[in-house]
Design goal:
Layout: E1 2-9, H1 21-39, E2 43-48, E3 55-61, H2 64-73, H3 75-78, E4 83-88
Antiparallel strand pairs: 1-3, 1-4, 2-3
Length: 97
């Protein structure tokens, strides 16, 4: 398995502060999706910047097409709410390793 990172980017700079109810519902489905990936053991780590400018998910996938499918299946991406960038990712140092 290879590691990939997808960074999600909100539609506007003040997204976290101005979330509409529909956007909040989509982001709830996004969070559930990430939790399911984590529960399946696919997530290396996930988080977001404190100000909400972007989020990052580092995960395992067999290859780039499958990694792209994971990112594109994220409900926030699939709904067109968030844009994403996909990158092959190599961990250099890891705590506890």
């Amino acid at each position: 398995m290879s590691h990939f990172a997808y960074r999600i980017l909100p539609p506007r700079g003040d997204f976290a502060a101005t979330l509409t109810s529909g956007e909040a519902e989509t982001m709830g489905r996004h969070f559930d999706y990430i939790k399911a990936l984590h529960g399946a053991g696919r997530i290396v780590f996930v988080g977001r910047t404190e100000n909400g400018d972007w989020g990052l998910c580092v995960f395992e996938a067999e290859d780039e097409p499958r990694a792209r499918a994971v990112a594109e299946a994220d409900p926030a991406v699939a709904a067109g709410l968030m844009r994403y960038e996909l990158h092959a990712f190599r961990t250099v140092f890891e705590r506890g390793a």
